[in-house]
Amino acid sequence: MLKSRFVKLFTLMTIVLLVASLILTGCGKSSETGDSSKSTDSGQPAQQDTQDSGSQATSGEQKITVLLPKHEMDTKGFWEKETRQFESESGVKVELINMAWENVAERVTQEMAAGGSSYDVVEFDNAWVAKFNKNNWLEPLDGYEGADEIKNGLLSGLVNKFSIGGKFYGVAWNNDTRFFMYNKKMLEDAGISKPPKTWAEVKEYSKILQEKGIAKYGFIDAYPQSQVGVNEITYAIYSFGGNYFDENGNLIIASDPGVKNALEFLQKGLNEDKFIDPASLTSDYEAIANVFFKGDTAFFLQAWPGVYAYANDPSVSQIVGQIEVAPYAIGVDEKTNIVLTLPEAMAIPATSKNKENAWKYIRYMSSKEFDKRKALEIGALPIWKELYNDPDLLKLYPYWENFGKQAENARGLPDITWYDQFANIIQVEVQNILIGQTSVEDGLKSIEEQLKRVME
To answer: Domain 179-340+418-455 belongs to what topology?
Structure first.
């Protein structure tokens, strides 16, 4: 699971360069045509048909082609089974192509840039929103039957992430939202009755745990010079009430008090107060999870959903039975208890020749009934708000109730077409701030100056 996250992050920059090349050279439609009618999990191209994947399979037969990564928790063929059920109920044939994320990403971006029509439903990653919107690569979904029900029923953070310019472009299929978890036993041993709710309490409780020899540090996070580090810094900034841009897209990073307060807190916590594990500066997600599982830290500020299960697996964890999910995330007040969401969605290419049937598939595969079956069968986190209070699901996953409470305040990464350049600047300059090489004020001025040059 963790390895796939790192591959995904690494691949993004390569894809951006590829898309830029395709657009600038004005290349024609991709020579790649349809794949075999069987779904595939490999990264290798499947056997080609003699016709476009998006065309009619036979005279009078309705057919769509779907290109998605396989859900990392779907070891039972659940998506394949449900797709065949959709075929049975709708009469629409589905060519389902499952590949590793990096292979799907390459195919989707090549096809979009070339203006091809091979696919009718495609992967739509949270990092692609601004770029795909700018290039008019996707079909707005707002006008389709049932779209309003979906927008009103799904977690708002998932809807907002795939909406831009007042239009809704993608329905989430993979809810990769992060949550605040903590070691309840450690807090009880220290005489602390409830988890921290504010950053000030994180510091206070961490110092108590250290003084009593219960934890080495309050928490460890991932602040390396990589996309992982940008994710965690963005969460910290959001949870201090800060932002990189104002509502009009203007840079405010050097003047926003929340940004300054977040970085000052982290800088001091690492270098002066020393309640943040200094290994945060070089650790990735797998490393910080392992530190938490060893019982060296008490708080996991932005844990992915699977952390709870791993924490209770004696083969990898020394803290079995000690972990709880808080009913809130960390912030400076009630308005800033933010969690980060990095979801994936299904979307319809603007060039698809089968948009109505593509929407039927998306609607079926994101319905509340489907979402519950998916949660019951493979343990995937729901996209529908109502399911976080579903009695059947809470019997299996009682901690999901608090997942639902935290997810009400989920936010995604900034929607900008030049995100990779943005991330490269942030990750380098912020680490200089965190290690104390530069002051927060000077570092933020440098970041803003560099970002402005990119925007010119």
So the answer is: D-Maltodextrin-Binding Protein; domain 2 (3.40.190)
Domain ranges of the chain: 2-176+342-408, 179-340+418-455
Q: Is the pLDDT of residue 16 over 70?
A: no
Q: Does domain 2-176+342-408 have CATH number 3.50.50.60?
A: no
Long-range contacts, 30-36 (Cβ 8 Å, 24+):
30/110, 30/111, 30/114, 30/116, 30/118, 32/107, 32/110, 32/118, 33/118, 34/65, 34/95, 34/118, 35/65, 35/95, 35/97
DSSP strand pairing (163-164 vs 93-99): unpaired
* DSSP assignment letter at 46: P
Distances (CA, A) of 451 to 223, 230, 425, 433, 438: 20, 15, 7, 17, 18
Residue 456's pLDDT band (boundaries 50, 70, 90)? confident
Same CATH fold, 179-340+418-455 and 2-176+342-408? yes
Query: Distance between CA atoms of 53 and 34, rounded to whole angstroms?
Result: 4
Q: Are strands 179-183 and 323-325 parallel, antiparallel or unpaired?
A: antiparallel
Q: Let me know: does 221 contact 237? Beta carbons within 8 Å.
A: no
CA dist 357 → 139, 168, 338, 360, 412 (Å): 13, 18, 37, 5, 29
What is this structure's pTM?
A: 0.86
pLDDT score at 262:
98
Structure tokens at 215: 């934890």
What average pLDDT does the structure give for the chain? 89
Q: How confident is the model at residue 117, as a pLDDT? A: 95
